[in-house]
């Protein structure tokens, strides 16, 4: 019998490359046909979840066909090559100026902003601007700069813990509780001192989807300033909410209408409705971004300022954001976000009717809500069991503990994104009803070994 060759004629799955286990940790010596390699990788990722059924993530999993075409046209563009791609660079500027206006900057012409790889990088840049500004003011006054601190809720996203860790800033966490479900300005003075570089306010806490009342936090800081003279700025981490509130809650005052808000960040790839990874950060006035953090890259024979942790980064997502802004406009974004909120409220109302549960919130801030088991409902099962039962049907609906002071409390959460239709939501609600009834019918406890949270913040 002749030796089987890796050839176009050899049927798929009987070629040498596909008839053996692919190399895992060493680059193979020999080449394979492109479609052989393609088939192997394609098949391995079949075991990944279906992203549209993943209700744990905030990150976009659907765009229309024109966006896909534009992505294909532009996935070779490097955002840092402003000289080679001046048009992409100009579009990046258009986008953050659009956001400065959307977030009510007093004058978008004197604001400053940039795209980033996501909210994490955007938050780090916001935090770095705070730290540098504080250092400069302290040095100018001949004061010590060795122990900066940043004040925030205990329910912050992990990027803020990273910022504090990587850049040597003491994190001061204000614990959330049943009475104070978010950072709301209550007792803030205990955490603030002359070494506080700023306060983080979250528009759309990842644990629950609730807004922090930025105006209340600003008022508390006004009172602190009146008493102590300390002028503490706010960075709004609007990873999800900065792209919801302008459309669904235009009267909520959380943005640059508050003078104390120096900077706002968001994830273009969450409710900005773009595929990962894209973030944005905007400063209300260029003066709040210290000059000595800004580097220059060449651009059309001149220089262009940049402030980023990365150097090379895909430019395509920036173009997709511009596409989404042009395609949807304010009316379109409002319609899309409203549709998501309608689905969130439909689901939260349905879940509230199931006797086993109690809502933590109902999705009326961002289209995200969480619930818990009613106290004393059962000893036979917990929300991790429901998470597992739903997973068997393809749905990812994570259960996890709340942060520190509430860590004994387990909640389960749904993030409604563009693409979770009312029709799919009806199927999901039915699955939750069916699986809850199954668990409630148990006559003895489910095992609890090996249970683990379905989401990390
Ligand atoms: C998602 C999220 C982040 C991190 O954003 P990435 O874009 O994933 O880097 C930060 N803060 C909040 C409140 C978030 O929801």
From TrEMBL:
Region Disordered: start-end pairs: 1-22
Highest taxon above the source species: Bacteria
Molecular function GO terms recorded: glutamate decarboxylase activity
Keyword flag Lyase: yes
EC numbers: 4.1.1.15
Entry keyword Thylakoid: no
Cofactor: pyridoxal 5'-phosphate
Record Pfam families: Pyridoxal_deC (PF00282)
Coiled coil: none
UniProt xrefs under Gene3D superfamilies: 3.90.1150.160, 4.10.280.50, Type I PLP-dependent aspartate aminotransferase-like (Major domain)
Residues in the signal sequence: none
Catalytic activity: L-glutamate + H(+) = 4-aminobutanoate + CO2
Keywords: Decarboxylase, Lyase, Pyridoxal phosphate
Family to which this protein belongs: Belongs to the group II decarboxylase family.
Protein name: Glutamate decarboxylase
Organism, scientific name: Agromyces soli
